[in-house]
Hints:
By secondary structure, the protein is mainly α. Helix content is 65%, strand content 0%.
Amino acid sequence: MKPLSRDEETFLEEQIPDGRSGRHADPTEETPKGEGGPNLPELLLGSKKRPSTAGLYVRGVLLALLTIWSCRFILEPLEDGYALRSFMHLVNLPFHEGGHVVFSLFGSRLLTSLGGSLMQLIIPLTCAAVLLFRTRDPFGAALALWWLGESFIDLAPYIADARSLSLTLLGGGTGATTPYGFHDWNFILNELGILSRDLSIASAAHFTGSALMLLAIAWGVACIIWNSTHPS
């Protein structure tokens, strides 16, 4: 290769001053704002597409109704089993049963039994993560978090029934009339040697779910306030 002359080197340096592009660098050029992504308040509260005023009112009404419904889930006695009679139980049930199938692939009977409850929690948690980080819809993520809390409450009566075995299961029988292992939480807690703690674990699940539902509602309210005071 023929070596460059001094004049040719000078010409190239003038054309490509930074050695990477064929245009002159502009010293006044700045990195566009927001290129590094949204800050934390914007991520947690600000929607990618700002809702209209009417949309904010609709969200407010939805949260008000959700708050009333949440009180029913939270305040009903655990033994009453309201969560198992609610519409949301029908939403959770397919994911619960599907979880048994998915986790059975690991070859562990204990994990297969636990998989139903795990999947019931994984699905709303995944929805919350996708809505928050992928679609930038924190209000939708708050609703998914509410669903996660409701799923915890939905599991509580089932856990509490681990010893009494009086709940009617999917096949129509109770844990007392079905083979060992058919009642998930009787099998799980008995195999782990903590069957006597069923009520404590159920209460913890109910408390966790209640806290998540209230947190989700507070998050939704904060999203509405943020979007009404920070128009796009």
